[in-house]
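Q: My labmate handed me this sequence with no annotations at all. I'd like to see what the chain might look like in three dimensions before we decide whether it's worth expressing. Could you predict it?
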Amino acid sequence: MLFQDNASYVFVNTAATPQSFQPQWYRIEIARSTDGSSAVGKLFAADGTTLLNSLTQTGLTKNATGIALRGFGGFDVDTVTVSAVPEPETYAMMLAGLGLMGTVARRRKQKSMTA
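A: Here is what I predict for the chain of 115 residues:
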């Protein structure tokens, strides 16, 4: 497994760990930190839960925006799933909106009780 900087299609390895592969299914998971400064790649066995290897890349910048899968010697990609993780600001905005809705509902209830 490896992380690369692929600026202008020049592949420079930035982090790597050896891994031997058998002809079977694997699951790979890549997660970026919330501030975007690091990423962790995890390789799981065919059962999807047994961790075989992991690799961490630090020193990333916010403009690191892509993930590419490349393979050699018969490597195939079957399914790619991308899950977005909300930024902390998203949760803060959602909580503020819920608080505002609660305040409006409470005021309406108080108005209806005094009328």
